[in-house]
């Protein structure tokens, strides 16, 4: 082996390996830079999907309510649903008009307010319990004022009205 300065001639075989690694790195860089774009696109797509599904569910619940008012019973908004529409809740002073579903499980109140099982139906004698998320469907409740009217439409089409007589925070 002959030495020229500090480089031995017997190490030429390592030189081609160093030259081929640099292009691999250059090919890998765009893929690595693209990963955040792909992740962002997936997150955006998931958000669009959730919003589209939420809008579709409201249409299906409205259709189920129309069928209920037409005389059908226990009309499920979609075939695999474990709930059905039981009432319509309206507070016109606050711009609220919501359909109430049977049951108050997390699955139910993700779509609309739910009527607690075992309690009298909304608008019938006795204490009826309607629950839901206060930051989505029932957000209007924080704006109710003394004198506001709350209307409930029963599944048979009859309506009952209630007036807010007191406020507490």
Please describe what this structure looks like:
Helices cover 36% and strands 20% of the residues. The chain is an alpha+beta fold. The chain has one domain (11-169): Sortase, Chain: A (Beta Barrel), CATH 2.40.260. The strands form 2 sheets. A 6-stranded mixed beta sheet has the order 6-5-4-3-7-8, covered by helices on one side. It is elongated and about 80 Å long. The N and C termini lie far apart (91 Å). The model has no long low-confidence stretch (mean pLDDT 85).
Structure keywords:
2 helices; Sortase, Chain: A; 8 strands; 169 residues; single chain; elongated; six-stranded mixed sheet; alpha+beta; two-stranded antiparallel ribbon
In terms of topology, how is this protein built?
Blueprint: E1 3-4, E2 7-8, H1 14-69, E3 85-91, E4 96-102, H2 106-109, E5 114-115, E6 130-131, E7 149-154, E8 159-163
Parallel strand pairs: 4-5
Antiparallel strand pairs: 1-2, 3-4, 3-7, 5-6, 7-8
Q: What CATH architecture do you see?
A: Beta Barrel
Topology as a string of helices (H) and strands (E) = EEHEEHEEEE
- Given the helix and strand composition, which structural class is it? alpha+beta
Reading off the top of the CATH hierarchy, the class is best stated as: Mainly Beta
Count the E strands: 8
The DSSP helix count reads 2
Fraction in helix: 25-40%
Percentage beta strand: 15-25%
Distance between the termini: 91 Å
């Amino acid at each position: 082996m002959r030495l020229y300065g500090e480089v031995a001639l017997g190490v030429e075989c390592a030189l081609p390996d160093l030259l081929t690694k640099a292009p691999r790195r250059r090919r890998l860089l765009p893929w690595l830079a693209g990963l955040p774009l792909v992740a962002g696109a997936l997150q955006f797509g998931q958000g669009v999907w959730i919003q589209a599904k939420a809008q579709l569910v409201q249409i299906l619940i409205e259709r189920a309510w129309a069928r209920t008012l037409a005389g059908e019973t226990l009309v499920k908004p979609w075939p695999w649903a474990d709930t059905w529409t039981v009432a319509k809740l309206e507070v016109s002073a606050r711009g609220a008009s919501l359909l109430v579903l049977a049951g108050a499980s997390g699955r139910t109140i993700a779509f609309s307010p739910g009527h607690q099982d075992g309690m009298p139906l909304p608008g019938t004698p006795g204490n009826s319990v309607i629950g839901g998320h206060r930051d989505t469907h029932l957000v209007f409740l924080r704006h109710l004022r003394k004198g506001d009217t709350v209307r409930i439409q029963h599944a048979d089409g009859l309506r009952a009205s209630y007036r807010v007589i007191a406020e507490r925070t």
